[in-house]
Design goal:
Blueprint lengths: L4 E8 L9 H4 L4 H14 L3 E6 L3 H11 L6 E7 L6 H8 L5 E5 L21 E4 L4 H14 L4
Parallel strand pairs: 1-2, 1-3, 3-4, 4-5
The structure holds 1,3,4-trihydroxy-5-OXO-cyclohexanecarboxylic acid.
Length: 150
């Protein structure tokens, strides 16, 4: 039986993890987080594909490619785009697969502008504030939503 594929998308500035404010984002680089996510995916009977971009158009096009593209779920951290990109929001709205938002930092406890997610109206839920562990918790949430486990 083929393992369900989960897309893991990281947006603007997340390639700089390890060099960003450690108090908010920890010290782990994105590659290391991706490795942890891939390990957990293996344990959960899932496969994962990773995508990161600092270009909003490329990010939107990747979401379009997920539309009817074989992924069973999406874990997304759109970085600062979370707070203002209606383009990404509208692209996500096209998807029929479960979408879970993950954030390293506790966005609800930070600056006013970070407390708003324009994506949340088209996602199933948000995991935020647990550093790299947010990704692992969000992956478990996606697994639960697609009905494999979690
Ligand atoms: C973030 C939170 C955003 O507000 C910020 O712009 C990021 C990262 C997080 O993972 O905590 O780049 O999405």
């Amino acid at each position: 039986m083929t393992k369900p594929l989960i897309a893991v998308m990281n947006g603007i500035n997340l390639n700089m993890l390890g060099r960003r404010d450690p108090a908010q984002y920890g010290v782990m680089e994105l590659e290391t987080i991706n490795q942890r996510v891939a390990e957990l995916a293996g344990d959960l009977g899932l496969t994962v594909e990773f995508f990161q971009s600092n270009h909003e158009g490329a990010f939107v096009e990747k979401i379009h490619a997920l539309h009817g593209g074989g992924a069973a779920g999406l874990l997304i951290n759109a970085g600062a785009w979370t707070h203002y990109s209606y383009g990404i929001r509208d692209a996500l709205e096209l998807l029929t697969i479960p979408v879970v938002e993950g954030h390293l930092s506790h966005v609800q406890g930070r600056e006013e502008f970070r407390r708003v997610s324009v994506l949340s109206s088209v996602t199933s839920g948000v995991v935020a504030g647990f550093g790299a562990n947010s990704y692992l918790l969000a992956l478990r949430a996606v697994a639960g939503l697609i009905g494999t486990c979690g």
